[in-house]
């Protein structure tokens, strides 16, 4: 098993060519993440880790593929849970065999990536409908630090090392109530052509339409700047929210959470 340098990422790209997961692009293009393979020059299997997401591809029937799956958590990983996306059933079998303890199997929901087919007028109408007691604000240094300081909102900015890094590469919108961040939509990760969206709302402010407003603002911002706002849903509520914004459901797929304790 070999940890790949950036110039070697091109060699594993064909193994992931059937996936439309933008976080794979994030790593292959050198924006964020780390990759390993059985061979740097002629890989048959590979692993990509970006933030708390892990992807496997290639031949899952070798000793080298077993070594990759055992590389969880990877060195330097500092979270309690990693989410694993296998790209075929053989990887599913291997993951279940090697990590029988602390393993949770669940479904995620892929959303179609259809380019700029969004209804801008509808997005603007959602934003305009925000009640006057709330304030919509673009993420800046202060909101970056506030988001990181709350457990519920940390993922909005956590994959950017500094506020300067976030402001340079990321983009996001928050909703404030009485000066406090209560909902946000932001770039979880970035890739050459866009971002992967993260949306979070403080529990006591949910079901008020705030995520819809934040999402509309971020989607509108992205498409007006030539970026694609990629969406992948962790649950059916996220699917429903995406569809209100103009996305379309693609398919359900298998994922795993591996909990470390």
UniProtKB/TrEMBL annotation:
It comes from the Bacteria. InterPro entries: Acyl_CoA_acyltransferase, GNAT_acetyltra_N, GNAT_acetyltra_YdfB-like, GNAT_dom. The keyword Ribonucleoprotein does not apply. One of its GO terms (molecular function) is acyltransferase activity, transferring groups other than amino-acyl groups. Keywords: Transferase. Residues 134-261 form the N-acetyltransferase domain. This is GNAT acetyltransferase. It comes from Acetanaerobacterium elongatum. The lineage of its organism: Bacteria, Bacillati, Bacillota, Clostridia, Eubacteriales.
């Amino acid at each position: 098993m070999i940890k790949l340098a950036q110039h070697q990422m091109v060699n594993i790209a064909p193994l992931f060519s059937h996936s439309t997961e933008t976080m794979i692009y994030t790593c292959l293009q050198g924006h964020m993440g780390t990759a390993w393979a059985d061979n740097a020059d002629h890989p048959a299997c590979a692993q990509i880790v970006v933030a708390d997401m892990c992807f496997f591809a290639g031949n899952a029937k070798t000793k080298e593929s077993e070594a990759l799956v055992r590389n969880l958590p990877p060195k330097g990983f500092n979270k309690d849970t990693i989410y694993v996306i296998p790209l075929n059933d053989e990887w599913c079998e291997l993951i279940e065999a090697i990590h029988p303890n602390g393993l949770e199997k669940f479904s995620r929901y892929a959303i179609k990536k259809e380019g700029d087919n969004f209804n801008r007028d509808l997005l603007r109408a959602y934003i305009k409908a925000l009640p006057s007691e709330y304030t919509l604000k673009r993420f800046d240094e202060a909101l970056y630090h506030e988001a990181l300081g709350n457990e519920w909102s940390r993922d909005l900015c956590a994959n950017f090392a500094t506020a300067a890094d976030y402001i340079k590469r990321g983009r996001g919108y928050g909703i404030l109530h009485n000066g406090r961040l209560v909902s946000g939509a932001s770039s979880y990760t970035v890739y050459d052509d866009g971002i992967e969206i993260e949306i979070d709302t403080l529990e006591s402010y949910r079901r008020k339409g705030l995520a819809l407003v934040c999402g509309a603002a971020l989607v509108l911002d992205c498409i007006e700047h030539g970026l694609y706002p990629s969406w992948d849903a962790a649950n059916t509520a996220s699917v429903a929210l995406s569809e209100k914004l103009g996305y379309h459901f693609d398919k359900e797929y298998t994922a795993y959470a591996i909990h470390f304790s």
